[in-house]
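Need Dynein heavy chain ATP-binding dynein motor region domain-containing protein's 3D structure for a figure. Predict it.
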Amino acid sequence: MEPVLDHLLGRNTIKKGRYIKIGDKEVEYHPRFRLILHTKYFNPHYKPEVQAQCTLINFLVTREGLEDQLLAAVVAKERPDLETLKANLTKSQNEFKIKLKELEDSLLARLSAAGGEFLEDTALVENLETTKRTAIEIEEKVKEAKVTEAQINVARENYRPAAERASLLYFILSDLSKINPIYQFSLKAFSVVFEKAIQHSAPSDDIQQRVMNLTDEITYSVYTYTARGLFEADKLIFLAQVAFQVLTLKKEVNPVELDFLLRFPCKAGVTSPVDFLQHQGWGGIKVLSEMEEFKNLDNDIEGSAKRWKKFVESEVPEKEVFPKEWKSKTALQKLCMLRCMRPDRMTYAIRDFVEEKMGSKYVEGRSVELFKAYEESSPSTPLFFILSPGVDPLKDLEVLGKKLNFTIENGKIHNVSLGQGQEVVAERALETAALQGHWVILQVPSGR
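Structure prediction for Dynein heavy chain ATP-binding dynein motor region domain-containing protein:
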């Protein structure tokens, strides 16, 4: 914390005449002044004196905490009766606690005020009996409520896989800012996508099938929503992260193998005994060979060099069948071997891996559907287009506008190119559009 803030944090004010002053320079201080400081540090540490002077609020959301929030949202949509019942139970249990506390306080007050023989105080005895009887009734109701709550929780748990998947996806989105600071996704926007995915998922009377439909729709909706805002070079990274973390959550991948694929540790100083493998690739093979699942891989490559050479030097090795018993390895294990042998083909291999595990719809090349983006917008959620040179979405917007009866000709589209002196024009257009429900296109010149 900057030393210049010490006077503010300590509220070191002095009164001079009618005014309140602060600091060495005696700056005038308004009694309603509020200071809010925010940090982006994941786990900040504050000195004890700062903790004593300030109110610290932790907005950090955890995977488990978000999962519980999203579970409540799913159940509220799918089984509103359950969520209402659970809310009522929580309320009634709190009321029971308050009632018991009031009875105890009342009894203690009467006992402390009573003098002499307690049994001669009729009101005290009656109050004691009432308290005892009410406490027994409340205890019975609490027992009943706990049984009902347990039944509700069992029913709610059926929907946990959907909430668990959604929570996982949100934290993948949060980490995208490490790739590029422009990738910022708010929990509020994510919640909108999440709720729309619930609405659009295929219905089913079978609860397990319904949860599977919910999980699949949530995953795909979040993917399409996110990929729309990513640069082309980063889309496969995001897709791979989704695939790997979903499979890890389902315990369908070996964490050690996944760690090898992502970090690619290799033995330094080793020389490749075959001409079709680089020294670094052979170093990776030696590390792999130390794992039980890849035992004798290095010896097999040396012993069957001709067969492995044909595989490694093929045009599309990710589509070829691995030699001998290695063809029966899992998809992730094959990726690990290919990572050592043909790192140049990993982009295609990862794409094939995602298609196998998640479905072909995740890897199909498709342009952004403007109408889909429009459906997700609202009067308070505008669309932003970050354009490459030569790209102009105006024609697509005009086509969409004609379908919805928004055109420049009928005055329902206001197109303003922002520049010097155009602020007034833009503000006037926004005011008109806000009142009459028009569209406003604000074009910002490059470099601004």
